[in-house]
Design goal:
This protein is of the alpha/beta class. The protein has eight helices and seven strands.
Length: 263
């Protein structure tokens, strides 16, 4: 296979949950730039359509939809809509997630916050992956890309956040991202016989554009490249794992952290 052809996604359809902001938007843009028809979805339907319009102005085939990934009926309806419209679903990027509330920490942590964050991250990823898998099994192929975090493998260093004036990720976020990494391995094991790949992208420190400048500098100081990550740093990773170029990669947790975790 010619390597350029291996990354060509013309004629393929992808869903990117949480695709209206930050990392999700960058990954959706990457798939659109490779030629895929992309549907971005989140609870904020209006935002998704605004972003989709922005990307269409760049010549990309992108549409926006509303979907709460923790509600099974909404996820199933989203997948059905996409398949009815495009005839197939080739890629599911399970990106929607985060912390359901400000993080709390042991020994005084909130059980409600812990469960709510697990629901958002693990339940949402599971429902999206399963709904996509049903279609992909029938097609005999497809790619499921989940989104973990380096904090699914490493915990947070409290010292890093000193003096920043805001909280760090708590046990719920770290437990949920760790669960997503191993859930992905299970998906790879169960679905490989159907020609379906399942891989996880674990981003490192990628501050949002409005992030605290002190935090941004601390990120840079702890990364070999001497810069914090940018959302576009995930474009190559999702291009590899979602396209035919990654057809022999499954069950892998791809850490994209600029070297944060090497020391």
């Amino acid at each position: 296979m010619n390597i350029k052809d291996a990354f060509d996604m013309k004629g393929r359809t992808a869903i990117v949950t949480g695709g209206g902001t930050h990392l999700g938007k960058a990954m959706a843009t990457a798939l659109g730039e490779l030629g895929a028809s992309v549907v971005i979805a989140s609870r904020r339907a209006e935002l998704c359509e605004e972003v989709a319009e922005e990307l269409r102005e760049q010549g990309l085939d992108v549409t926006g939809r509303g979907c709460d990934v923790t509600v099974e009926s909404e996820v199933d309806a989203l997948v059905k809509e996409v398949v009815d419209e495009h005839g197939r679903l080739d890629v599911m990027v399970c990106n929607a997630g985060g912390s359901a509330a400000p993080a709390t920490h042991v020994p005084n942590g909130s059980v409600d916050e812990f469960i709510a964050t697990l629901e958002l991250n693990v339940r949402g990823t599971y429902l999206c992956a399963q709904a996509a898998a049903r279609v992909m099994v029938e097609q005999r192929g497809g790619s499921i890309v989940t989104v973990g975090s380096i904090h699914g493998s490493l915990t947070t260093d409290k010292r890093f956040y000193e003096g920043l004036g805001f909280g760090r990720g708590g046990p719920a976020y770290q437990a949920s991202k760790g669960a997503i990494i191993n859930l992905t391995r299970n998906l790879a094991s169960e679905l490989g016989e159907h020609g379906i790949t399942a891989n996880c992208i674990s981003p490192g420190q990628i501050p949002r554009p409005d992030a605290n400048p002190i935090m941004v500098q601390r990120c840079a100081d702890n990364i070999p490249f001497n810069r914090g990550g940018e959302a576009d740093d995930l474009k190559g990773a999702v291009a590899l794992l979602a396209s035919p170029a990654g057809a022999w990669i499954t069950g892998h947790n791809l850490i994209v952290d600029g070297g944060w975790s090497i020391w």
